[in-house]
Amino acid sequence: MTLFQALVLGIVQGLTEFLPVSSSGHLFLVRYLLEWPEPGLAFDVSLHIGTLVAVLWYFRREWAALVSAAMRLVRQRGARTPEERRVLFLVLATIPAVIAAVLLGDYAETIFRHPRITAIALIALGLLLWIVDRLAPRLRALDTMRWGDALAIGLAQMVALVPGVSRSGATMTAGRALGFDRQSAAVFSFLMSMPITAAAILKEAPHALSTGEAVAPVIVGILASMVSGWVAIAVLLRFLSQRSYAVFAVYRVALGLLVLWTLNARG
After folding, report:
1. Exposure pattern of 153-192 as b/e (b: 16+ CB <10 Å)?
2. Which one, of 267, 265, 266, 263, lies nearest residue 29 by Cα?
3. pLDDT, tens digit, 9 for 90 and up, residues 179-201
4. Contact predicate 125/170, CB 8 Å
5. Direct distance between the N- and C-terminal alpha carbons of the chain, in angstroms, rounded to an integer
6. Which long-range contacts (C-beta less than 8 Å, at least 24 apart) are formed by 209-217?
7. Whole-angstrom Cα distance, residue 141 to residue 225?
8. Structure pTM?
C-alpha cells in the first residue's frame, strides 16, 4: 500500500464513519472501483484507532462525565442522574452489536461483501432515512431516553454488519423514528461508536501487531482518519442544527445507483 492510498482511505474512513453513509461500504467500493489491493489487518485497525481518538477527543467533556457516572454506579444501587442512566443505555445498546458480531462476523467479511449488496444497502437505508426523518416528530431530547429506546437503537446497529448500511445511518434512523431530534440522535450514535470500536480494536490488535506490516501507512491512516473524523462530527452536528438528513439520503441513493450502473457496464 502506498502512502497516497493510506491517506485517501484514512480520509474516507474518518468522514464516512460518522456521516450516515457507511464507512465499510465506501472503503470497499473505493478499493473495488480503483482496483486497489486489500489493506492489511494492521491498517484496518489503524483506521479504527483514528476514529476512536476523534470521538473521544470531540466528546471529551461528555466522556469525563460518563466515566465519573460509571464509577458512581459501581458504588451505589440504581442510576440517579441523566449521565448514570446514559452509561447504562450505552451498555444496553452495545450488547446487540456484540452478539451480531459473534454470530454473523464471518458473513460480514465474506457473503455480505459484494458490491451489488453494498449498492442495494446504500439505496435502501437512504430511502428509509429520508422517509423517517421527514415524517418522525422532532420533540425528544437525549435526556428523555428510556430502556426500550436504547435497546431499539442497539438492535438497529446490528444491521450495520452489511457494508453499505452504515452504523451511524442505522442508529440515527432508529433515533429519529423514536422521535429524538436530529442532533440528539446523532450524539447518541457517536457515543455508541466508542465501545464497539474499542472492542474491535482490542480483538484485532494482537493479530495486527504480529503481521509485520509497514509502519508509515499505518501512521498516515491513523492521522488521516482522526482528523477527518473530528471534522465530520463537528460539521454534521452544526449542519443538523439547521438542516435535515435529506442530503445524505439523496447521496446514498445516487451512489448506490452509480455503483449498480458501473457493475452492469462492466458486465
Report:
1. bbbbbbbbbbbbbbbbbbbbbbbbbbebbbbbbbbbbbbb
2. 263
3. 999 999 999 999 999 988 888 88
4. yes
5. 28
6. 209/42, 211/40, 211/41, 211/42, 213/40, 213/41, 213/42, 213/43, 214/1, 216/3, 216/6, 217/1, 217/2, 217/3, 217/5, 217/6, 217/39, 217/43, 217/46
7. 29
8. 0.88
Between 20-29, 35-44, 175-184, 244-253, the lowest mean confidence (pLDDT) is in 35-44
Residue 209 has pLDDT above 70, yes or no: no
Dihedral (CA of 11, 13, 16, 22) sign: positive
Q: How far is CA 111 from CA 103, 114, 150, in A?
A: 14, 7, 29
What cell does 264 get?
452492469
CA angle centred on 225, ends 33 and 194, rounded to 5°: 115
Cell of 219: 501512521
Length of the chain measured in residues: 267
